[in-house]
Amino acid sequence: MSKPKTRWIVIFSILFVLQLLVLFNANNPASEASDTIDKADTAWMIVATAFVLFMTPGLSFFYGGMVSIKNVISTMLQSFIALGVISLLWYLVGFSLAFGESYNGFIGNPATFFAFKGVGLNPHPDFAPTFPFLLFALFQLKFAIITPALITGSFAERVKFTSYLIFMCLFSLLIYCPLAHWTWHPQGFLRNWGVLDFAGGTVVHMSAGFAALAGAYVLGKRENKAHEPANIPFIILGTGMLWFGWFGFNAGSALSASGLAVQAFATTNMATASAMITWVMFDAFLGRKITAMGACIGAVVGLVAITPGAGFVNVGQSIFIGFVAAIISNLAVYYRQKSSLDDTLDVFPSHGLGGIVGMILTAVFADEVGAVYGDFTTLKFHLLALLIVGVFAFGGSYIIYKITGLITRLRVSPEDEQLGLDISQHAETMNITGR
Q1: Closest by alpha carbon to 185, among 290, 113, 233?
Q2: Distance separating the N- and C-terminal Cα atoms of the chain
Q3: What pLDDT digit, counting tens, does each position of 398-412 carry?
Q4: How far apart are CA 361 and CA 250, in angstroms?
Q5: What is the spatial distance between Cα 398 and Cα 211, in angstroms, rounded to a whole number?
Q6: 10 Å Cβ neighbour count for 229?
Q7: Which domain covers residue 273, as residue numbers?
Q8: Looking at residue 224, what is its pLDDT?
Q9: Is residue 222 domain-resident?
Q10: In a domain? residue 2
């Protein structure tokens, strides 16, 4: 057995100390549930939280099916591992940074809810007035988990696993948590501007899209970009899991078992259906084959695009949002493939541009405050927010990639890349019988 490297000894020692710290945390007593808890809201939010968690394994299948056969396990693990890493990070300090006592609308106090201090079974008037505050923290955790997992599609097949773990932690603390605070905290400056993000178009998809763009730029092109997707049924399965889980993502963001949740549920489904059909019909219109992978990518683009406006637009408008987003993302994927940028699984064209389209059209159609109702204030603030978020997410992620590169090598060696990340990073292979 080889001796562990010094950095792993240090990392494990830090993990052990943190375990002792939270084990003897005396400021986190269990509390009994209040009589003010609404049982219907609580039941729905438990279900919605589980739905959103289900999206991350779905993403792992979606991405894993797209890469080459020698990189399936590594690609899927990059998504799946976030369930563990971000859960612990969120418990310790992430939730506080996102939803703790606000410093001028920019970031939360890391001590407010450190190790879930004060996050118990009673409602919270600002965040969870009808269900346990702990459930709100867990619901928001699932959003924090999937965001760095989304980024992995941009640098799939060439990133070193340990460098990805470092990047994931830094991104979550320095990019995701501030964006969540700006957008969803009652004192967040974007929220106070009137920026509308019902379930994460800015916080999740734009941040992941711009981080993916920075990652593709920093890591550079793969040694060999040409390959066949490893498993199309994996892609279909992953899309189905994402579509299913997205109902918790969007309808759950109503934070109640209410008509608003039903509205978000309906707009989510119809925008997704519209984008999927638009994508495959647009392919046919351009003389391409209608493919299963195209249908799946189109569906995901629709899910992304409706996310910021799911509770603010009606069903007809959601269908139009899916239509527009599918055409724009389809063209972006086509021209990206002809460029020198190697965004492996087209994260920016799908999630970045999908989120941008969704945010703009939310400001156009949002009930009462949208541009179609004669009020352009929301649209102006959305355009300004898109600029700020784009610069912050891209520039901040670029710096984080560079910092990570100073700690450890970002890319695997050319030999390891040729061998495949499944073997070179994890000593595992996907056993395909009869192949």
Answers
A1: 113
A2: 33
A3: 999 999 999 999 999
A4: 16
A5: 7
A6: 18
A7: 38-421
A8: 80
A9: yes
A10: no
CA 128, 131, 133: angle at the middle one, nearest 5? 55
Domains held by the chain: number: 1
Give the rounded distance of the alpha carbon of 375 from its chain centre: 30
Phi, psi of 339, rounded to the nearest 5 degrees: -95, 180
Structure pTM? 0.93
Banded model confidence at residue 91, pLDDT cuts 50, 70, 90: very high
104: left (phi over 0), alpha (psi -120 to 50) or beta: left
CB 126: neighbour CB atoms within 10 A?
Answer: 12
- DSSP label at 371? G
Task: Give start and end residues of each alpha helix (H) in 307-420.
Answer: 315-337, 347, 353-365, 377-407, 414-419
Q: Which two tokens stand for residue 420?
A: 């495949």
Rounded to a whole number, what is the largest CA-CA distance in the chain?
A: 70
d(CA 66, CA 84): 24
3-class state of residue 200 by DSSP: coil
The CATH number that applies at residue 173 is 1.10.3430.10
Encoded tokens for 45: 């939010």
Question: Per the domain annotation, does 235 fall within a domain?
Answer: yes
Q: Residue 338 is encoded by which pair of tokens?
A: 């002809």
Locate 197 and state its tokens: 């993000």
Residues 6+ apart with CB under 8 A from 111: 96, 100
Q: Does the pLDDT of residue 305 top 90, yes or no? A: yes
Among the listed residues 129, 144, 192, 158, the one whose alpha carbon sits nearest the alpha carbon of residue 345: 158
Q: Phi, psi (5° rounding) for residue 35?
A: -70, -15
Per residue in 258-301, pLDDT (tens digit) is 999 999 999 999 999 999 999 999 999 999 999 999 999 999 99
Alpha-carbon span 67 to 266, nearest angstrom: 32
Q: What is the DSSP string of 97-151?
A: HHHSSEETTTEE-TTTTGGGTT--SS-BTTTBSSS-HHHHHHHHHHHHHHHHHHH
**For 347-400, how does the pLDDT look when each residue is reduced to its tens digit (9 = 90+)?**
999 999 999 999 999 999 999 999 999 999 999 999 999 999 999 999 999 999
pLDDT tens digits, 94-133: 999 999 999 999 999 999 999 999 999 999 999 999 999 9
The answer to whether residue 397 sits within a structural domain is yes
